[in-house]
Amino acid sequence: MTVHDWLKSAIEDAERRDLPALKPLLEAIAKSTEALRKAADAR
Amino acid sequence: MNETISEIGARIRAGDVSPVDLVQSCLTRIADRSDLNAFITVLEDSALSEAEAAAAEISRGQYRGPLHGIPISIKDLVDVAGVPTTSGSAVPPLHPTRDAPVVQRLREAGAIIIGKTNLHEFAFGTTSDESAFGPVRHPFDPSRSAGGSSGGAAVALVEGMCYGSVGTDTGGSIRIPAAACGIVGLKPAFGELPCEGVVPLSTTCDHVGPMTRSVEDARLMFQVLRGTRVNDAPVPSSLTLGIPTGYLLERLEPEIRSAFERLQAALTSRGHVLVDVTIGLARSTPDVYLHIVLPEAAAYHARFLAQHADRYSPNVRNRLETGRYMLAEDYVRAMQLRERLTRDVSGTLAACDALLLPTLPIAAPPLGVQSVDVDGRPEPVRAAMLRLTQLFNLTGHPSISLPAGVTTSGLPIGAQLVGPAGDTDRLLAIAAALEPQITAGPGSVGGGTG
Which terminal Cβ of chain B has fewer Cβ within 10 Å, N or C? Predict the structure, then answer.
């Protein structure tokens, strides 16, 4: 799953659960996940 | 009032001080400084009973050892039989019927459990200002954080409310408040002390450890908590200390940086050898940490979130909720990178006796702030406070924070030593050897003038 697709899906679910405060946190995690995957791929 | 365990223990053994008087004195301090919110539960009656029993045993010649009759506090994340484990939360507490093994070992050594200390809710933060029992306030400036998550434990030691504390450390939660408040905090090697009976945050990063007023006291407590003697093999008079270059030290508050530079100069002048070391993947540490701790925390809290979501502090709840979205494939990537980080840190330690770095890049921040300025740039307070400690939770290397002077405004600074994998005994010996040189007294760092 791409990080873009994960973020879209996670935000939609958080909104469905009436947890809009998660959006900026999930966006920050998405940036961190991109960095994590880049580091892992650099092996 | 603020004697060390080894000092007061000798007086107890000689019959010069009664454990009952010690407990009374600690209870008075707890009551006098209740404004600091250091304790959640004070075990006044049982502590006095235990003190009377200890006094009677000692007078009969049945002295158990250096912790006999010594008041010790327990972070309220750790089970004490018959006392609610609140985790600093409004979520309904646990009601343990058994002591956690570390508490049981303290009791067997004759220690007196004086109470349970306040913390950042569920140990999920570095500032101890999100607690259902009020924010833990810094003893030198109550408008500031005492650090966290074991903030109450650190305050209790500074204020003479106990002589030793049991804390927990998942990303720095022993070392951070130790540095912020000016005491000693030991995170042993991973798995060395049992986490049974401790509310988990991240089961592969959680550590239990002692918080004390000296390295010798940390050694005494650690020995009891582990249940086996510490190897006291001497260390060379000239130690080789690795100073991490790059990510770990590139962003420090200017006062912390200048204090650390003075400390390095002081250690060099005393014959130690300082060498630059590079931890290749260090910059990935926060990403690896996030992708391990969040899902592990969410796994434990899922059942409580389902029933009591509205009882959590909003920030703690929201961070736990995000952990429920993390992908397993990214958790695996993080665990694989973690192995590389562990090899990298062990590789640097092959060429030196210990790593030396500050414990915190900033002094104790004001309570309630979400962002701090570090070397001219704003940064989330949690990220800044974790930066220099969380790596060693991932790698499991033992590490210890020692007081290293104060800032111009009187706030403590901490220096961190990191030892070889699995060898907490060696780290304690190194820390004991360096303690006089690192902890040179109020207003100075590493001898003051370096």
Answer: N
